[in-house]
C-alpha cells in the first residue's frame, strides 16, 4: 500500500489526542523529572512499587477523546525513563511485572477498537536507564548493540502483540543518527508487521508525516502531511503545579489554524497517577466537543483555502470555504482574494443565511449579528461555484 492510501484517513481526521502517562505521574512534575532532578535510576525504579492506578479506565479515556471530536489517539508505551506500559520480554521494568500487574497498552488498544478510534502508539528510542545510550555506539559498540536489540525488540512486540496499529509515533532519537539506530532496518520490520501503519519523522528518517512541537509552522508549513503536537497547559506529563491551561477558544483556534495550513492537531493530556484526567482537561475537552459537534464540517477532511481575512483562519473542503471568525467584529466581515463566484453564505453555527456583496475578488458579509453566535469560533460557510481559487495580491 502506498503512502497516499495509508495516510488518507489521517489527513481527513485532523484532530487527535496525545497521552503522556507513566511513573513520572506519581511525582507530578512532568515526564522529564528523572533527568531534570537527576534522580538515580534505582531510586526512580522504586516508583513502580507505588504505581497502582486503580482508577485507570481506558474506555473512559477513549470516550472523553471521542466526545471531544478526536478521531485518533497516541499513547506513550514507554517514555525516556524506560518504564514500559506493556508486557515485554526485553525488560522487567514494565507495568505487567511490577505493582500494577497490568498491560495498559493492551487495555488502551482494546478500548480504542471498541469505540472505532484509530490507534497510535508512542515509543521513545532513548532510555535513560541504559549506560549504552549515554556512551553511544562509538564508545561502547557492544553495549550499543545490546541496547539496539532491546529497542528493536520492543518495537517488534508493539507491532506484533496488539493487532492492527495505525500510527507508530517515535521520539527520542537524539543525538544519534539513523545509521546508529538502524532506523531503515527497524522501519522495514515495522512495515512488514504492520503494512498499513504510518510513522512519524522522529527516528531520524522522514517517515510519513512531520511533527512540529508546541508551535504551528505559520510561514513555512511542510509540503507533506504534518501534525502539530501541543499541550493543553505547559506540560506533557502530569504537573500538579501547572495551572496555565489553554482555554477552549485558544485550542479551537489552534486546531482551525492547523487545518488552514494543511495540518493536524495532536492535543496532549497528562493523566494523574491514579489514571484519571485532570478535571480542568475534562472540562476543556467537553467544551471543544460541543463546538466540534456543530462545526466539525469545517475541520474533518478540510484543508487550506487561498482566501484571506482578518478575523481568523479559513479552511476549505470541496466547493465550500469556512471562515473561522475567532475575532467576531459584528456588522461586517471582508474576505479577499476570492477567485470564485460566491453562490450563497450562511452561519454554520446557527444555519442562518448571511447577506453578502461580491466586488471583484472581495466578499463582504453584511448585517451580521452584533454578538458572536458562538463564544469560541463562529464559522461562516461560503458556497462557491467550484473549489476555491485564490487571486494573488497586487497593490492597487
CATH class of the largest domain: Alpha Beta
Q: What is the fourth-level CATH superfamily of the largest domain?
A: Glycosidases
Shape: elongated
β-strand amount:
15-25%
Q: How many structural domains can be distinguished in the coordinates?
A: 2
CATH topology title of the largest domain:
TIM Barrel
User: What's the helix-strand series?
Assistant: HEHHHHEHEHHEHHEEHEHEEEEEEEE
Q: Provide the structure class.
A: alpha/beta
User: Please, how many helices?
Assistant: 12
Describe the structure.
- With 396 residues, this protein is of the alpha/beta class.
- It has two domains: 296 residues, Alpha-Beta Barrel (TIM Barrel), CATH 3.20.20; 80 residues, Sandwich (Immunoglobulin-like).
- The protein is 30% helix and 20% strand.
- It has twelve helices and 15 strands.
- It has a seven-stranded parallel beta sheet, with helices on both faces. A five-stranded antiparallel beta sheet has the order 8-9-10-15-12, with helices on one face.
- Strand 9 and strand 10 form a beta hairpin.
- The mean pLDDT is 98.
What descriptive keywords fit this protein?
Immunoglobulin-like; TIM Barrel; 15 strands; elongated; seven-stranded parallel sheet; 2 domains; alpha/beta; 396 residues; five-stranded antiparallel sheet
What is the structure about, briefly put?
With 396 residues, the chain is an alpha/beta fold. It folds into two domains: 3-298, Alpha-Beta Barrel (TIM Barrel), CATH 3.20.20.80; 305-384, Immunoglobulin-like (Sandwich), CATH 2.60.40.
Amino acid at each position: 500500500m502506498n503512502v497516499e492510501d495509508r495516510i488518507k484517513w489521517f489527513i481527513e481526521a485532523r484532530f487527535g489526542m496525545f497521552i503522556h502517562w507513566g511513573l513520572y505521574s506519581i511525582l507530578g512534575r512532568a515526564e522529564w523529572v528523572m533527568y531534570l532532578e537527576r534522580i538515580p535510576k534505582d531510586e526512580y525504579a522504586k516508583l513502580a512499587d507505588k504505581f497502582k492506578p486503580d482508577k485507570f479506565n481506558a474506555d473512559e479515556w477513549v470516550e472523553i477523546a471521542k466526545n471531544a471530536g478526536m478521531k485518533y489517539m497516541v499513547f506513550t508505551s514507554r517514555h525516556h525513563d524506560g518504564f514500559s506500559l506493556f508486557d515485554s520480554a526485553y525488560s522487567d521494568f514494565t507495568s505487567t511485572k511490577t505493582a500494577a500487574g497490568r498491560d495498559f497498552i493492551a487495555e488502551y488498544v482494546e478500548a480504542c477498537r471498541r469505540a472505532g478510534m484509530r490507534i497510535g502508539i508512542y515509543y521513545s528510542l532513548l532510555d535513560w536507564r541504559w549506560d549504552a545510550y549515554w556512551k553511544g555506539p562509538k564508545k561502547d559498540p557492544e553495549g550499543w548493540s545490546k541496547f539496539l536489540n532491546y529497542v528493536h525488540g520492543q518495537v517488534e512486540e508493539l507491532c506484533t502483540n496488539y493487532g492492527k496499529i495505525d500510527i507508530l509515533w517515535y521520539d527520542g532519537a537524539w543525538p544519534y543518527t539513523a545509521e546508529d539506530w538502524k532506523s531503515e532496518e527497524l522501519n522495514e520490520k515495522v512495515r512488514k508487521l504492520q503494512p498499513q501503519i504510518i510513522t512519524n519523522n522522529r527516528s531520524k528518517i522522514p517517515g510519513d508525516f512531520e511533527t512540529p512541537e508546541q508551535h504551528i509552522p505559520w510561514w513555512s508549513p511542510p509540503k507533506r502531511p504534518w501534525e502539530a503536537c501541543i499541550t493543553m497547559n505547559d506540560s506533557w506529563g502530569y504537573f500538579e503545579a501547572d495551572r496555565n491551561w489553554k482555554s477552549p477558544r485558544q485550542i479551537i483556534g489552534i486546531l482551525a489554524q492547523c487545518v488552514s495550513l494543511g495540518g493536524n492537531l495532536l492535543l496532549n493530556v497528562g493523566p494523574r497517577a491514579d489514571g484519571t484526567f485532570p478535571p480542568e482537561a475534562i472540562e476543556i475537552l467537553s467544551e471543544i466537543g460541543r463546538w466540534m459537534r456543530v462545526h466539525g464540517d469545517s475541520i474533518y477532511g478540510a484543508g487550506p483555502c487561498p482566501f484571506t481575512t482578518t478575523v481568523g483562519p479559513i479552511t476549505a473542503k470541496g466547493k465550500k470555504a469556512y471562515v473561522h471568525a475567532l475575532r467576531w467584529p459584528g456588522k461586517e466581515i471582508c474576505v479577499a482574494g476570492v477567485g470564485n463566484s460566491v453562490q450563497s453564505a450562511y452561519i454554520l453555527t446557527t444555519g442562518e443565511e448571511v447577506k453578502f456583496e461580491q466586488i471583484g475578488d472581495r466578499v463582504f458579509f453584511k448585517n451580521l449579528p452584533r454578538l458572536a453566535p458562538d463564544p469560541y469560533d463562529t464559522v461562516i460557510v461560503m458556497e462557491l461555484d467550484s473549489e476555491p481559487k485564490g487571486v494573488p495580491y497586487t497593490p492597487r
